[in-house]
Amino acid sequence: MASVVFLRAVNVGKANRCQPASIAKDLAKFGVVNIGAVGTFVVREHVSESTLRRVLARKLPFKCEIMICPARDIIKLSSKDPFSEQPSGPNITRFVNVLAKPLRALPPLPLSLPSDDDWLLKIIAIQDRFVLGLYRRQMKAISYLGKIEKLLGVAATTRNWNTIDKVATILRQNSESLVQQKSTK
């Protein structure tokens, strides 16, 4: 089964610098594809989570959280349109936080920061290890992204919904390719 890797806090400012394209090239035997979003990889081959975690950690010159999700979880997440009822436009960004582990208890949703009336960040849903939300393109909104981890009590890494959609497209293509290969044998 394919999987997806999300590295937390990589290439942010001048800290924790690495070259994702080089990592993907070095791990080509596992079918690793660099998505282009910093620290996001599709792993096309079946590799155990422990092996994948170990080889990735060796490639990084620093310690960081490595979140690994089965491909089916990403495909399931993207198969619905969780943002269909939400506002959109050039000043709103749709995002997904990938949690290091599932939450024990879900907070009441939607959760709007700083307030329901004047939100800069809004969490609209939590599905398994994925926190779905929106933020307004304002500098102050970024500080609220960092507060999500504290509110939920679990390490998280943020990706734009477009990145998740791109990952899901690659995973679907990979699945279709595998089905075609099996039918020609």
What does this structure look like?
It is a single chain. This protein has 185 residues and is an alpha+beta fold. It folds into two domains: 3-76, Alpha-Beta Plaits (2-Layer Sandwich), CATH 3.30.70; 80-163, Alpha-Beta Plaits, CATH 3.30.70. The protein is 35% helix and 25% strand. It is built from five helices and nine strands; from the N terminus they run E-H-E-E-H-E-H-E-E-E-E-H-E-H. It has helices spanning 20-26, 49-59, 71-79, 139-152, 161-183; strands at residues 3-7, 32-34, 40-43, 66-70, 92-99, 111-113, 121-127, 130-136, 156-160. The strands form two sheets. It has a five-stranded antiparallel beta sheet. Helix 3 packs across helix 5 (161-183). The longest helix is centred in the C-terminal third of the chain and has 23 residues, at 161-183. It starts with a strand and ends with a helix. The mean pLDDT is 88.
